[in-house]
Amino acid sequence: MKSRITIVLLLLSIFLFSFQFEKKTYLRLGIVAPIDKDSLVFSAGFKIFGESVGRMISPSLSEEKFKQNLELIRNAKGKLYMCNVMFPGQMKIAGPDVIEKDVLAYAEVLFSRAELAKVSVIVLGSGTARKIPDGYEVEKAKADFILLCKKLAASAGKHHVKIALENLQSQETNFITNVKTAAEIVRAVNHPNFGLNADIFHMRRENESYQSIINAADVLIHCEIAEHEARTVPGIKGDDFKPYLRALKEAKYKGPIFIEAGANYTPVQIAESYQFLTKQIEAVYTE
User: Fold this and answer.
1) Residue 249, SS3 per DSSP
2) I want to staple 225 with a disulfide (CB 3.0 to 4.6 A). Which of 79, 81, 173, 200 is the partner?
3) In the chain, where are the structural domains located?
4) What is the CA radius of gyration of the chain?
């Protein structure tokens, strides 16, 4: 009888601990990092990670190289959730020099490889590829870009992949440099496989209010973050992200937050970054 009571109490304590742990997992955290650092970021707490299209699933990779990458992805401790830098800089996707058939052919192979790799999201940043000539009519660029993105979204949908359009800072491109404009384009595309990536780092560099996140709640599927001054991982400079995290909370955002910062961080810095951002999220979600 005594042993039964002990077992029941033990099971109850495990259940309560698990319940408390689940309550504290308000938003999943991911990090963009080379796949060879998978074990390091996994042990720091990041169960999902991101890589670049160019290194992992690009159509420019040979079949042999892609198969090798698939093996790395399948054997990784964490899940490769997303890839960024969707288009190489020389492949124009906005402005007068777009060769649509080449863009769509590239994208079809990309999405088929993303499906095989079980990549959920491909981030459409690609600042150089979408840069338009100085003086080019912005409204025409937007209208043409929307038509192209409708076709890209349809292709992505066939392969069960989502595209996340990213706001970039004006130092990187001159086309779609805030969440407000990116959200307008996503709504115009109007496809379930085409959503918004609100990059908080770029928002802060462009002095864009966190209100834009709240206003874009209907199309928001992805979020990225880094510290303002030198694009460091959270915790290096100690940036306060809580106003933007409150906006995510108000927007009822359920997706992950990905750290997209520079490279060459120590294991200790990466682990501390996970804890630093987790604490800010917990502080906001328990207010």
Assistant:
1) helix
2) 200
3) 27-285
4) 20
Residues 6+ apart with CB under 8 A from 205: 169, 171, 228
**DSSP three-state, residue 216:** coil
User: pLDDT per residue over 131-171, tens digit each?
Assistant: 999 999 999 999 999 999 999 999 999 999 999 999 999 99
Q: How far is CA 196 from the centre of its chain?
A: 9
Fill in the amino acid letter for 11. L
As a whole number, mean pLDDT of residues 190-200 equals 98
Q: What is the pLDDT of residue 260?
A: 98
Structure tokens given for 71: 């093996």
Question: Which residue in the block uniquely carries the two structure tokens 């698939």?
Answer: 70
Q: Domain 27-285: give its CATH code.
A: 3.20.20.150
Q: In whole angstroms, what is the distance from residue 209 CA to residue 252 CA?
A: 17
Across the strands, what pairs with 84?
A: 52
